[in-house]
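Hi team,

Filling in the usual template for the complex we talked about on Friday. All components are listed, including any nucleic acid strands or ligand strings, so the model treats them as one assembly.

SUBMITTER: L.P.
PURPOSE: interface mapping
COMPONENTS: two
RESIDUES: 620
SEQUENCES:
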Amino acid sequence: MKQINVVWHKIPDTDCTLSAIVFADYLNKKWYEAKPYIQGELNKETEYLLETLNIAKPEIATSFPEGTRVALVDHNEKSQTLDNIWDLDLEWVVDHHKVDFSTSAPLNIRMEAICSTSSILYKMYKESGFEISKEIGTMMLAWILSDSLLFKSATTTKEDVIIAEELKSITQITDFEKFAMPMFDAKSDLWDMDPEDIVKYDYKEFEINGHKIWVGTLETTNPWYALGRKNELLEAMKRIKEKSSLNFIFLSVVDIIWMKNISMVLDGDDSEVVKSVFDTEVTDNLADLKMRLSRKKQIIPDLTEFFTKK
Amino acid sequence: MKQINVVWHKIPDTDCTLSAIVFADYLNKKWYEAKPYIQGELNKETEYLLETLNIAKPEIATSFPEGTRVALVDHNEKSQTLDNIWDLDLEWVVDHHKVDFSTSAPLNIRMEAICSTSSILYKMYKESGFEISKEIGTMMLAWILSDSLLFKSATTTKEDVIIAEELKSITQITDFEKFAMPMFDAKSDLWDMDPEDIVKYDYKEFEINGHKIWVGTLETTNPWYALGRKNELLEAMKRIKEKSSLNFIFLSVVDIIWMKNISMVLDGDDSEVVKSVFDTEVTDNLADLKMRLSRKKQIIPDLTEFFTKK
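RESULT (copied from the run log):
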């Protein structure tokens, strides 16, 4: 049996921990002895889920000894993965993001342009004839509902919906809204968090054509947790922008009940970028981005195009 | 129905044309209107197969209009793909090589560390519940036998062998050797070819740590087609090395009956590299590399290590 460590990405968005646990379960059913790892502390949604489902929190690791066999799940970019990925034996990648990595040897990769990596893993279980336990099925379902914001996100595909439906019989969870809302509420509960931690709660940092840009997203059932602390958050964004030598920083507060995106922007250049890219006004550091709920599909591509040409 | 063009890589090794035809057939069964393309003239093995199986030769193209949807099969590296890949809408990659590309959007990727991309496609048909026609099955089988040199190559996996066995009932081909030998003979028939074309018959060019290296392979049932023309071929290698500003050039003549590799090397630096990397003598520009039949697994990794440290 080959030992392998399964790793999720550095920046804790919702699906993180579950993805490593589910993929490790899959690999254990194949010909591996697989162990899930996380690269940092969990967000509140994931903490809530692990507690509710009574699942142990994986160990934290950001590097492994040279030559360790690893599997990456839900990410592939260098900036989001293990510190010493080049010393390791990368054997698997399962993901649904754009590609930005290279290897010196062939490996196993499964990527699909689909809302949730969970849906890809569900298909892989089916294809291999592996049984999906109630516990794994529940994690898969939570992960799909979280990724797709109860199917309201623009990234949702027909396949994600069909797979969630199929998971009903395994999980005996039939009321998706009832199952997902406490999970969404858990992640919305930001009142006791440090403003910098809120800005860092779920972000992607990119370098596009020499410009370093940072796009944070807060998906929340209660946008006032964030909007009510606007000044503190703008101060935190300013500090992060300076410390990380960013050219642009941006924080979307996505109301997942009412399906609206109100984004926070710093004065000056950043506001000009937002006005021009999203064709909107910026008033008191807030931009109404309306139904742009998906960072991957409705925010990043426009910013990428803008900074590529700049 | 989405239109998509399916493309194999620039340098014609054996599986090339078949891979584009088979993958286009798969995509047509999905939700595409797919058309196979090749990027240059065919080698003799492929010509023999298309003639024998009575299959039309795909059109040649090395670029497409901006925004054309494309699927790459059996390759992913920039140097081997369409000239204007960055203008195109890359939607699929099915391959079994190391990864060296990046994208600006998510896409569908299926890669496995397996001998033949044909085996991956076979699994994809099965997983999707698609029927494999006798014609497609025969192409798949030819492709597996060619990639694995009748299972003698070090890259052969248990899965490739099992899949070839499963293809017996679809193709009604049960004597693999009888089926594959005329195909191997066809590719061995080099007598009327220009020496430069022989050196370019099946090669990989890499840039490693600033060193441009070229590794050609002639898999043949009759090594004397090549060894008998040694001086002409060495002259051709010299010309190619100069024209392409290479730091190293190397041509393996792989006897697929007797499972031996005799490689041609130029005098000077190249001979020194071969001596040191493969721990062998070079006599009259020939190095006996013994059972190193797989370029991917038994030649490239050692050269990569050497030039990385140089």
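MY TAKE: The first strand of chain B starts at residue 2 and ends at 7. The radius of gyration of chain B is 19 Å.

Thanks, L.
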